[in-house]
Each structure stands twice: as C-alpha cells, then as structure tokens.
Amino acid sequence: VQHHGFSAHLDGIQAAEILESLARARELRARRPGEGAQALTGRYAVEWGRVRDGVTIPLPQAGATLFAGDRVYLRVFNEDLPRLYVSVYDVGVSGRISLLTSSEPAGVELALREDYTLGADESGVVEGLEAWWPRELPTSGGPPVPDLPPPSPARTALLAALARRVAAARRDRPLRVAIDGVDGAGKTVLADELAPRVEALGRPVLRASVDGFHRPRADRHARGRHSAEGYYRDSFDHAALRAVLLDPLGPGGDRRVRTRVFDHRVDAPVDAPVRTPAADVVLLVDGVFLQRPELRDAWDLTVFLQVTFDESVARARRRDAAAGGDPDALAVLYAGRYVPGQELYLREADPGRRADVLIDHGDPQAPCALRGLETDDA
Fold first, then answer.
1. In this predicted structure, which of 76-90, 146-160, 313-327 has the lowest mean pLDDT?
2. How far apart are CA 273 and CA 260, in angstroms?
3. What is the C-alpha to C-alpha distance for residues 180 and 240, in angstroms, rounded to an integer?
C-alpha cells in the first residue's frame, strides 16, 4: 500500500481497512450541500483561518496553505435559519476522520443570529487548534515547515499605514480592495497580514482570492499549456467574479455574495454558500490581473506590489522546491507562459501606474511605499 510516499507491507485485512478509510475520506471531501428535502433553506456563513498572536486571520475558502504548528479556527454564523446544527470533521491526509465537535455529537445548536467558533475557549478567547502532520506519513513531499521571520519594523509600519488608509476609506456600502501584483509578489501573505489590522481599526473584513474563480482546465489550456496569451486571457472567469462577488458589494448591490465558484486543483465547480456581509465590510481580494479592463471599475481601492521578474521567478522556484516540484518544468512554464503573460498584462493594463497604492515589495521585510501611503517615518 502506498499513500503520500508511505509504503508498508500489510496483510489483506490491514490493506482493506486502509482503503476503506481513504474511500470514506474521499466521499466526505466530495460532499456538496443537500438537495430537495435535505437542502438548507436559509443562509449561513462560514469563515476559517489562522490564529496568530491572538488575532484571527481569515483565509480563502480554497487554495490556502497550512503548515504543521499553525493554529486554526472556524466560525459559523446562522443568518436566518430558526435552528442550525453544526458538526465539524477533520479529514486527515492519511484518511483518518475525526469529529472535532465531539462534545456535542448531534451537532452544535445555533439559534437565529447565533455563531459558533471552533478553537475558542469558554470565555470566547480564540486560541485555535494546532495543525499537525501524522507521524506515520513522511514529511518529504508534504507541506514544508516555513522559517517565517516576524514582520520587521519597516513591514509593520507599512502594514499599519495601509490598514489606516483602507479603514478610513468610507462608502455608503462595502469597500472593494484589490491586492494586485505579478506571480510571487507576496499578495496573499500581505492580504492575510492586512486583514486583522483593518479589523482592529473597526472594519469587518471579507477575504477572497481570484484563485477561487479559475476557469476549467480545458479552457485555461485551450491555446496550449505554455501559452502566454492563454494565461492572461483564459485563466480566470472574470464575469463570475463580478457577478457573485464584486458587483453585489458595489453601488446598488444586495451584498449577497459567494467568495469562490471553482476549485482548480480538482478542476470542478464549487457550491460555496451565499453570505451577506456587513454593510461596512472591507472585501480584500488578492490575485493576478486584478486591474485588467473588465475589472477596473469594480474596485474602490487598488494596491499593486512591484517586484522584478527575476525576483518573481526566484520566489516561485523556492516555493516549488519546498513542495517537491520539478524545477526544470517550472522554469519552462515561467519562461513560456507566466512571465510573458504578465508582460501582456503590464503592457495592456499598466497596473503600476493606475494603482491607488504602489509598493516596492522586492524585499518583503523592507517594503517601500512609492505612492499612496503615509507611513509613520514618512
């Protein structure tokens, strides 16, 4: 039996038990909301993310990476159902399934407008649950344990200045913020670090990523796996991004949104729940190509992280090597698809010039605001 690089000599009964466990795990991961009599007729919201120094950092519904030792939380809010019962399962990489809400086997009961946070203690303090890697599975080829330094004084100052600008930008509706940049610019990390700082200034935050709006693989690769045109023009469903997320939070919108519609890892649609955030919510979206013409008027504030392509490729190689990827295949993709595709974007959209906030992010620990921010040491 082999799974995630783990092999062992097992008898027939042991092998059958392992295969049955993996099958159950696969079926649970693939489950979708009920239909017909089993469907939920009301609205609810689910949020999850990391806990760092007592601060919750919301993460996208799909595509986020966790590491051994990270602390995570999950929050469920019952928007308009008379009663909602919540059960949370951990489906491990080895196929083991655990009920995390075991103190209430029938499900945590939530009345109308009540919420439940997994990872909070009895006093409501959110400490999170620690993510861990099974001992029986090797770490090689699995998620790397990063050596992430704490934010430097320069990074802390820039994040504080950006949070102040975002929190102070008031509309009579939600604020839609794009964190834009080329591949490997550090968009997701910056957005994740920015979110709790904005919340600390009194604004609720909704996180999303353009990665939740990929088009099917056949569409993305219709011009060829290494096509720069295909990368820029065919990768994402921008119409869906506007229809289910950006426009509902814009002028005249009803605020009923979905934060993702497609999972590119399994090449399948995602039936994400509809949620209605607060009227003064800040939507933080990270991703590539966010200032392209068909999205340009859908943002209230745009941030562009500027890095060289040499640095972009170097970061991608480090990230891929840590995940056990093929550096030669990655180099071919970047040379033929990703870098030329980004060059098309820079020529056609000129995002650095158009962005409200321009940040030199060549050194994440020494970022420099080139335009649009007033830092404490300015």
1. 313-327
2. 9
3. 18
Kindly state the DSSP code that residue 14 receives in the 8-state scheme.
H
What is the pLDDT averaged over residues 55-71? 74
Q: 100: which 2 tokens?
A: 């995390």
Task: Give the whole-angstrom CA distance, residue 25 versus residue 4.
Answer: 15
| pTM beyond cutoff 0.90 | no
* Distance, CA of 265 to CA of 310 (rounded, Å): 27
- Reading the block at residue 333, the tokens are 């993709």
Q: How far apart are CA 270 and CA 267, in angstroms?
A: 10
Token representation of residue 37 = 């009599």
Using alpha carbons, list the distances in angstroms from residue 229 to 223, 263, 337, 341: 7, 22, 8, 6
What pLDDT does 18 receive? 52
How far CA 26 is from CA of 2, 31, 91, 306, in Å, comes to: 16, 9, 9, 40
How many C-beta atoms surround the C-beta of residue 350 within 10 A?
Answer: 12
> CA-to-CA distance for 331 and 316, rounded, in angstroms?
9
DSSP code at position 202: T
Q: What is the pLDDT of residue 145?
A: 41
User: 120, 98 in Cβ contact below 8 A?
Assistant: no
Share of the chain above pLDDT 70, in %: 78
